[in-house]
Design a protein that fits this description.
Blueprint lengths: L2 H33 L6 H19 L3 H27 L7 H21 L8 E2 L7 E4 L2 E4 H23 L1 H11 L1 H6 L4 H26 L2 E2 L5 H14 L4 H21 L5 H15 L14
Antiparallel strand pairs: 1-4, 2-3
């Protein structure tokens, strides 16, 4: 395989991985855009969604209908978790200093991870995720698997659906209004609390889908499975410009390609270091991210 073909192969792999990061990053960036909160429990919602799909598939079997049902069930469970967490943990701290909400988010993350470990029907041991048989398709000396195609297509579909919701629906218009000025939106009659809960639920739905796609590509589930994808998706959100939906998508794909390039040409052990190195560089060079904007705050 020539060097050019190898580069294209790693780009394909990176697009598949970046699609998952982009879905998770969208949850981070939507929540931050609405309530200025970095929800570090978001990666663990991915874990909840993956386990919900695992239990659904082990109960009803792996089939096309079963997979669709697993997606719907996982999204409902994850959205419920996201809304309940927002109402119980974040809503009381909405007017508190940001550090309080940040510490609470870390606490919620630890509760979800370690709570899953002690629940008898989950437990600490990894479980094999039911997944379709991998079939590799050769195109110009490059290999593309059916799993990668599914991951990319489902991710693109969900991103288009999200863009439609945010840009073309009444609820999406309300989300943008709350993001721009929460107090003014409230005075205009927009139900701010309901919109914030909807945003958490919508982000959790995307995290659930990302959890299923991640478990399909790397077929095992365990309580700590959401930590590293969650952190890397946060890096993707910062890279693209946290608060920017297109930025989260771009950041996810850039990070995915950078990670697979590192694994392909340097060392798989350096992939995490490269990801966190990108975070440091972007914070030093352009803290607002690729598509972020500098915002002046009046004192």
């Amino acid at each position: 395989m020539s060097i050019g073909t190898e580069i294209l192969q790693q780009i394909i792999n990176g697009i598949a991985l970046g699609s998952i990061y982009a879905l998770i990053a969208l949850g981070y960036t939507m929540v931050y855009g609405i309530v200025r909160l970095i929800n570090f429990a978001h990666g663990d919602i991915l874990m909840v969604g993956a386990f919900a799909a695992y239990f659904f598939l082990t109960r009803f079997g792996l089939s096309t209908i079963g997979m669709v049902g697993a997606f719907l069930f996982s999204m409902i469970v994850s959205a419920t978790f996201g809304i309940v967490i927002e109402r119980l943990a974040y809503k009381p701290l909405r007017n508190a200093p940001r550090i309080n909400a940040l510490i609470t988010a870390i606490g919620v993350s630890l509760i979800l991870e370690n709570g899953a470990r002690v629940i008898p029907f989950i437990g600490p041991n990894p479980r094999q995720f039911p997944t379709i048989k991998t079939v590799n398709i050769s195109v110009l000396d490059m290999s593309v698997s059916n799993v990668q195609i599914i991951v990319v297509l489902v991710s693109i579909f969900l991103m288009i659906a999200l863009n439609y919701i945010v840009m073309s629906t009444k609820t999406g218009k309300a989300m943008r209004a709350v993001s721009y000025d929460r107090k003014a939106a409230s005075l205009m009659g927009i139900p701010v609390n309901r919109i914030i809960s909807f945003t958490f639920g919508l982000g959790s739905i995307l995290a659930a889908a990302a959890g299923i796609l991640f478990a399909t590509a790397y077929p095992q589930v365990e309580p700590y499975m959401g930590i590293m994808p969650g952190l890397k998706a946060f890096i993707a959100a910062v890279l693209g410009g946290i608060g920017s939906i297109p930025g989260a998508m771009i950041g996810g794909y850039i990070l995915g390609i950078a990670e697979t390039m590192t694994k392909g040409f340097l060392s798989s052990q350096l992939s995490d270091a490269i990801a966190f190195g990108i975070l440091i560089i972007i914070l030093l060079a352009k803290p607002t991210g690729i598509m972020g904007k500098n915002v002046r705050e009046k004192v």
